[in-house]
């Protein structure tokens, strides 16, 4: 009997039964198919990696070639850029650098040669389109439009790279030879020309700003005695420009933001100007790429049906920085845009809103603006008025209450935008090889082994070596060293506060 059970079982018709051998074969086939699929996926990943590296290399070669053409004063038929009006000075040429600090004296930065009988060519900022996207050659100047660039803040989330006396808008954060404020100047110059491009800055930064922007007219640099937030800065410019030109339309654009897609940006600003002429405070809404908790949001309202500005809408409301779930729900509706803090309006209309919602602030700014071009009277007014002005953002002062009354419009835009608010967002803007950290500075000073992600800033000149650590932020400056993670880079400002409390004010 035992021999019988040891043998293969049989059916009544003496045929072998379908035993586990068939099931094992089926599993073997499945495993074989899975292994083949894994192999194909691995091959595809390898091909994608090779293509990505090849594209990065090609982009770098094209960019370097275009920048070399700029340096040699040549322009090919397909070179991108905008034509500036005849007789205007060109911006400083691009120059190679290994440091984010642009400290070369002005005399060492050659300007493009100009001729009174020929027009010069303005090239799009390398921090915008990377000089790779051609745009039509055309005069884009908007008569009566004045650019206001508030250049303030210390950029504490980018400490110790950014300092109070040398904040992030003065840094070249992509090592392409232009600081953020230079790139902002480059981007907006086609719309207003140097004669109508103004900057509001504190006394600690005016000297470096003049060095970085030699084409900036002295009368167009408005020095505020101390930081009073965005309403006082923009309101000061509005009060001065309304006195100079009662019909002035002003556009306020932060000095430390990065934009990709210069042509789309200029088109959005042109639409905003047309809406502003009809007595609206106009903002530009950025299409959100992800549910960010670091930005405020704009809820889109009804269309305005303005023929010169087909995309313009009313602003239904402004929303403060939300939590992650709320941000995701905003994006899901398709009715929200990021609030980038860009405002376009008539100077007179902004002052009218300010008189309605913040009359004391309006009165103080108008008193300063009325005597600004008289240096002695200006200083007296600043000394008497500025210290007591309210410190408040423009959103809270006028944008939010005006939106509730249907007086604020938005132009939804398609260009890329980032406020470079911390090292994590900066890392996303820098190129890197696959599974390697981003490097802001001399790559020869950074050696890594089994390190993925993160960002390293070799600012001290010494070698930095990393082994088996992912997504770190390492900022090595001559006087201090910061080590944190990308996930906690928003909290760097807490360290700045601790340094101040501990008496390390010289490092801030």
UniProtKB/TrEMBL annotation:
<feature type="region of interest" description="Disordered">
    <location>
        <begin position="70"/>
        <end position="89"/>
    </location>
</feature>
<dbReference type="Pfam" id="PF00483">
    <property type="entry name" value="NTP_transferase"/>
</dbReference>
<dbReference type="InterPro" id="IPR029044">
    <property type="entry name" value="Nucleotide-diphossugar_trans"/>
</dbReference>
<protein>
    <recommendedName>
        <fullName>Mannose-1-phosphate guanylyltransferase</fullName>
    </recommendedName>
</protein>
<dbReference type="Pfam" id="PF22640">
    <property type="entry name" value="ManC_GMP_beta-helix"/>
</dbReference>
<dbReference type="InterPro" id="IPR054566">
    <property type="entry name" value="ManC/GMP-like_b-helix"/>
</dbReference>
<dbReference type="InterPro" id="IPR051161">
    <property type="entry name" value="Mannose-6P_isomerase_type2"/>
</dbReference>
<dbReference type="InterPro" id="IPR005835">
    <property type="entry name" value="NTP_transferase_dom"/>
</dbReference>
<feature type="coiled-coil region">
    <location>
        <begin position="34"/>
        <end position="61"/>
    </location>
</feature>
<feature type="domain" description="MannoseP isomerase/GMP-like beta-helix">
    <location>
        <begin position="454"/>
        <end position="498"/>
    </location>
</feature>
<feature type="domain" description="Nucleotidyl transferase">
    <location>
        <begin position="148"/>
        <end position="431"/>
    </location>
</feature>
<dbReference type="InterPro" id="IPR049577">
    <property type="entry name" value="GMPP_N"/>
</dbReference>
<keyword id="KW-0175">Coiled coil</keyword>
